[in-house]
Amino acid sequence: MVQSAVLGFPRIGPKREIKKAVEAYWSDKIDAAELEKTAKEIRLLNYKTISDAGVNVIPSGDFSLYDHVLDTTVMVGAVPKRYSSAGLSQLDMMFAMARGRQRDGVDLEAQEMTKWFDSNLHYIRPELSNDTQFSLTKDSKPIAFYKEAKAAGYETRPVLLGPVSYLLLGKAARDSKSYEPISALDQLVPVYEQLVKELVQEGAKEIQIDEPTLVLDSTSKLGEKFASTYEKLVKAAGDAKITVATYFERLDSNVDFAKDLPVHALHIDLDRGASQFDAVLKAVKSSKNSKLALSLGLVSGRNIWKNDFAASIKTAKTAIDALGQDRVIIATSASLVHCPVTLKNESKLTDEQRDWFSFATEKCSEVAVIAKALSDESSVKSELETNAKSIKARRDFEQNSDSAVRDRLAAVTEKDYERQSPFPKRLAAQNEVHKLPLFPTTTIGSFPQTKEIRTARSKFTKKEISSEEYDKFIAKEIEHVVRFQEKVGLDILVHGEPERNDMVQYFGERLKGFVFTENAWVQSFGSRYVRPPIVVSDISRPAPMTVQWSSYAQSLTKAPVKGMLTGPVTCLAWSYPRADVSKEVQCKQLGLALRDEVVDLEKAGIFAIQVDEPAIRELMPLRRSDWDAYLTWAVDSFRLATAGVKDSTQTHSHFCYSDFNDIFQHIQKLDADVISIEASKSDLKLLNIFETFQYQQEIGPGVFDIHSPRVPSQKEIQERIAAMLKTIEVKKLFINPDCGLKTRQWQEVEQQLANLVGAAKWAREEYGNKA
Ligand code: MET
Ligand SMILES: [Zn+2]
After folding, report:
1. Longest dimension (CA), the chain
2. Are 90 and 96 in contact (CB under 8 A)?
3. Alpha helices per DSSP H over 262-377
4. From atom 1 of ligand 1, which residue's Cα is the shortest distance away?
5. SS3 content of the chain, % helix, strand, coil (to 5)
6. Pocket test for ligand 1, best of 566, 611, 612 (most atoms within 8 A of CB)
7. Fewest CB within a 10 Å sphere: which of 311, 486, 498, 692?
8. Which segments constitute the Cobalamin-independent methionine synthase MetE N-terminal domain (predicted)?
9. What spacing in Å lies between the alpha carbon of 533 and ligand 1's midpoint?
10. Which domains does the chain have, with CATH numbers?
């Protein structure tokens, strides 16, 4: 019998039960016992879902109330003193690390949060130093959950984040900058040995240890560390079987040592890393570990598309021919935590659309069916037939979706990527339309999304108010935003984005080629979930999307109003992409659709047009060897979107909350006339790049952090400007905040922007003669 395995399951509950419970706990509406009760219900429900689907290997210990890296930190006792000595319960200590805590005389900041590989899930970064004393916390999560599942009648496979990856995902504590977390491996491994032993004592027969860093370039020299670690853990496990799980990319040359690990099985991602199959199979055949099994991650944990059974079975058969049935396992590519829970809660999808998708619950059945098909095809005959029909229907839809869009993309020439003239000539043309002062001031686009705005939008969605009433409301908001900006003295105004629910969703809903769900939530961090749009076909723009509100704003004022769009890369990054065509094609189609909007904004008399690309760094492939290809199409897509305008139209772009220093040449290649980029939240680290890199166009590093209600004084902003002018030329500097102001209150924004404008005026006096 070929085994089937699920690597992890969404921990949010089918109706977002965990979000509700966690938030209720945070606001003191329920106590820890009640939160724990809901959490247990969801865990047991998850085991039932996976087990009912017919999967053999059910994960436990993957559940989390916040994130699994943070849980690991608590489990191995690596909690920084300031949290562990604050007299908090383990639960409150964990939440304090995740989101800070300010009550009962305790004042703790949150720890750094960062993205889990290239996904939109985040984790709290372990903060390690020579002082970190690793020890196994009593009643640690994997043991408690294993026992809980067992008591409920489920034999599970505990999931651990492996020790090497755990350390590599961490960082040195602030006061020990030169510390290298991986140097603690010898102290950490004994904790894992003890944990493995205890799990086995409790009855665990299998353990899944995730080492996703095995797909990164940075582990290529750590072969010996992995080998010695897993030798120890395998010994600790005795007869229990350890599977080392890798995911999100190819192993590439790391397979040379991964194949010799003395473990029961090696798991590989054949969704993200499909091209590694032959190489890994060959490597496993030549492994020193002649019994090594291969766990094939065939059912994607990262997308929402139905699996193509015929294709999966073909791949699996190749593996079985080489290794035999006992050494092949059918699995999800990664944890299903990146998928929505179930299709059952979607009532608005058409039958045709529903038939394309498969969410976490449905994916469990897919894993089980593929495994059964390999043992006895006739036992799942009807499932295979139905699947073949669905896949064909989807292919037909894809083929016929929109040939005009594909023809248009095929007809794109070099010239479509180029502005009419180089930047200096454009600048001169722009100066003739609007002569901006030295140090022009502007904002990033959004103004406070007030309760009134959210209420009006929700009434409009529920059809409680008419679209005329809603439009009137939005118009009033825009007028308020414009008048405020005139009064405070900004140079380039915005309309404030009150009509936008979300910067991608707003466009997705207006573009052809996207589908939206009602309840397909996925965890982003903590209790914050997102509902990504899905790209289902060729993308085009049937009608203008933003022209109405931008030109309305412009009609109210003589000052230039900046149009505001979300860029092609960001629209794609924050959606589920199609699986049948490359991201490059989808991104360029988005670029062309946005190009139409940019040109229409220009026609409507809009002088400046901003195309936001905050996600350009986050879509970067995990392997450096794939970077160039990605950056080429990402830059090209942006240029397709923006290059259709005259010299006299000023294009802007915006970037935030990633480290852009290593891709700055590519940001330059976007050829935007002005860029704004978050800088203050990250201590102006961005400015280092300008010591060596001459940025050609105009640039506004953010002068204040918009995530904090704090109002920076004018003096503080002046100091930031002075710091920027050490490396950026006077005539190139724009003055703006780090990012949009949508999460702030009006009262804060009024003072923040008054100080910003004041500081710009000061700078004009101070540096005016140096321009
Ligand atoms: C995450 S970047 C946000 C840019 C957008 N224009 C805003 O101001 O909100
Ligand atoms: Zn931003």
Report:
1. 84
2. no
3. 277-285, 309-323, 351-354, 360-375
4. 614
5. 50, 15, 35
6. 612
7. 692
8. 4-319
9. 18
10. 3-74+130-400 (3.20.20.210), 416-768 (3.20.20.210)
Distance CA 495, CA 474 (A): 10
| Interatomic CA distance for residues 691 and 661, integer angstroms | 11
Q: Write out pLDDT tens, residues 679-729.
A: 998 888 899 999 999 999 999 999 999 988 889 999 999 999 999 999 999
Neighbours of 466 (CB within 10 A): 11
CB of 556 shorter than 6 A to ligand 1: no
| Distance between CA atoms of residues 567 and 614, nearest Å | 9
| Alpha helix (H) residue ranges in 294-359 | 309-323, 351-354
The protein residue with its alpha carbon nearest to ligand 1, atom 7, reads: 740
> Is the C-beta atom of 491 inside 6 A of ligand 1?
no
Please report, for the chain, how many H helices and E strands are present, in that order. Answer: 28, 23
Spatial separation of the C-alpha atoms in residues 379 and 61, rounded to whole Å: 32
Does residue 742's CB lie within 6 angstroms of at least one atom of ligand 1? yes
Token pair for 719: 């100091």
* Residue 172, strand partner residues: 128
Run of H or E residues at 677: strand 674-677
CA dihedral 353, 354, 360, 362 (to 10 degrees): -130
Contacts of 260 (CB under 8 A, 6+ apart): 227, 287, 288, 289
The ipTM (two decimal places) reads: 0.99
- pLDDT tens digits, 202-213: 999 999 999 999
The enclosing H or E element of 654 equals: strand 650-655
> Quick one: DSSP state of residue 686?
G
Mapped onto helix, strand or coil, the DSSP state of residue 299 is strand
Residue matched to tokens 């005016």:
768
